[in-house]
Amino acid sequence: MEKLIEQLINGLTVGSFYALIALGYTMVYGVLSMINFAHGDIFMVGAYFGYFTITQLSNNGFSESHPVLAIIFTFLAGALGAALTGVTVERLAYRPLRKASRLATLISAIGTSIFLQEFVRLIPKFGEILASLSIAGKTIFPPSWGNAIIDVTKTFGGAMVKTYPGLLGTDGIRLGEVFISYSRILIMAIAIVFMVLLFILVRYTKLGKAMRAVSEDKDTAALMGINVNRIISSTFFIGSALAGIAGVMIGIFYLQIKPTMGFTPGIKAFTSAVVGGIGNIPGAMLGGYILGLAEVISIQFLPAVYKDTVAFAILIIMLIVKPTGILGGRDGKNKL
Amino acid sequence: MALLEVKNIKTYYGNICALKGVTFEVNEGEIVCLIGSNGAGKTTTLKSITGLLHPAEGSILFNGRDITCMEPHQIVQEGIAMVPEGRHVFSKLSTLENLEMGAYSRKDNNNIQHDVENVFTLFPRLKERSKQSAGTLSGGEQQMLAIARALMAKPKLLLLDEPSMGLAPLLLESIFENVKEINAQGTTVLLVEQNTKLALAIAHRGYVLQTGEVNLSGKTQDLQNNELVKKTYLGTT
């Protein structure tokens, strides 16, 4: 029994990651009817921004003296870094193709995904090149700057696995025989807080209503005086910020990050969004938790290596039985 | 100076020329109708005015300002609101939320509530439906909502694209009465309509579009008595 409860909590933790990432897929699909296959990599970029921040903060002792502030800053950095990356990707890789065929956007998304992975992997190389740039035998940057650039880029990216400092340790609370670590509690709590905030935003604010209007009919939304491009940018900003938060969570929870880390969670979160009904916000949350729980339950009965198989089997069954997803509309035209 | 001056605009869909040089004007306080058969370019003309399409040649002046190259959301701020063909209410949003979207570009948030009450006076049915999602409204109610939503922008010029489409005859007359009332309260109206008889009955002046060109214009009484209009659009001889 205790084992089962611990596994369920584990499922909810993993589900929180999936749900937060799935929201980005679903929001972008809702307003643009496209799958942003670079979304998993935006999540990865968020983890790297968080990593950079937390290592700086722990190097100068700030995270020891103000642990709570350090965690908040790390999440902020991850969210903002991912958000700006997402907005830039939309502006450069998707907007010019808005009127092109769906296939063109899809290829652009896959290209962006590879670009982001390689970019993060090669950041230290860019740093070296930048520091050694020279005009007429003299480097552009003075040597002290050059070293700083190399230092910063080395800390930020690179092909090697990076290790998050263990912020929360392995402590936790014990309820009877059930042990819940603080990191799990933090992850579940943050995920729920942001999902509630998102729900309120989309439901009740002027921006949220405009997002729903754009999602339904872009031309008519423009006739209302809504700047459609700005709303699309905001959608990418919010969806990517949530992915960035999930990226920092993964760092805090699994401690290790690498440039290719976005792929599997990205695909799983996409599966969650489809299972819940892509384009539907509560659907993405539901789908995330269903997938997280299904994975841990499958581990009880099957060897652990089968958990990905189970996740994708759920996707296939869903696509056969109800292709529009659990909360999806009957016409398959899900709107935010 | 006319409120809206459309000067020799040519608009294309890809390589297809939909407007071959359309010129007309709308004066402040008027109801002007554009009539013509399917494919004559009526909707294309409205889309060119609202910025959903950009004319390749010619210019559009509103209140003396050149709006030819502006984007739709900027044109709304200039004071033009549109009731699109087929209503296009936001079906997942409530009636009230649709009205709020109509007022999206306005800065005077305090007066919006007051204007919501105003359009509810004009269309009492909408008040009863204010919490309902717009997709569940009947066709006539959706048309009222589309008009009310456009009014929420406080436009100087209201563009109506085929408001009669798919409405029962009884409802038709009441919608056209509403349009007259809106005009009487000071909003200039440009009406695009296939129902020529009704359009000519409420408009002051009219233009007849045929395959992308204006081939007839004048006061509505003159148009009503014109042999070509009678034969082609009114079906009377």
Characterization of this structure:
The complex is a heterodimer of chains A (336) and B (237). By secondary structure, chain A is mainly alpha-helical. Chain A has a single domain (2-168, 179-321), classed as ABC transporter involved in vitamin B12 uptake, BtuC (Orthogonal Bundle). Chain A contains 13 helices and six strands. In chain A, the strands form three sheets. Chain A has a two-stranded antiparallel sheet with strand order 1-2. Chain A has a two-stranded antiparallel ribbon with strand order 3-6. In chain A, strands 4-5 form a two-stranded antiparallel sheet. In chain A, strand 1 and strand 2 form a beta hairpin. In chain A, helix 2 packs antiparallel against helix 4, helix 7 (182-204) runs antiparallel to helix 10 (228-254) and helix 11 crosses helix 12 (281-301). The longest helix of chain A is centred in the N-terminal third of the chain and has 31 residues, at 2-32. Chain A is globular, with a radius of gyration of 21 Å. Chain B has 237 residues and is an alpha/beta fold. In chain B, the strands form two sheets. Chain B has a six-stranded mixed β-sheet with strand order 6-7-8-3-9-10, with helices on both faces. Chain B has a four-stranded antiparallel β-sheet with strand order 2-1-4-5, with helices on one face. In chain B, helix 7 links the parallel strand 7 and strand 8 (188-193). In chain B, helix 3 runs parallel beside helix 6 (139-151). At the A-B interface, helix 8 and helix 9 of A face helix 2 and helix 3 of B.
Please give the CATH class of chain A: Mainly Alpha
**Order of strands across the main sheet of chain A:** 1-2
The topology string of helices and strands of chain B comes to EEEHEEHEHHHHEHEHEEHH
The number of domains of chain A is: 1
Q: Strand order, biggest sheet of chain B?
A: 6-7-8-3-9-10
Structural class estimated from helices and strands of chain A = mainly alpha
Q: Give the structural class of chain B.
A: alpha/beta
Helical segment tally of chain A? 13
Uncertain runs of chain A: none
- The number of helical segments of chain B is 10
The count of strands of chain A amounts to 6
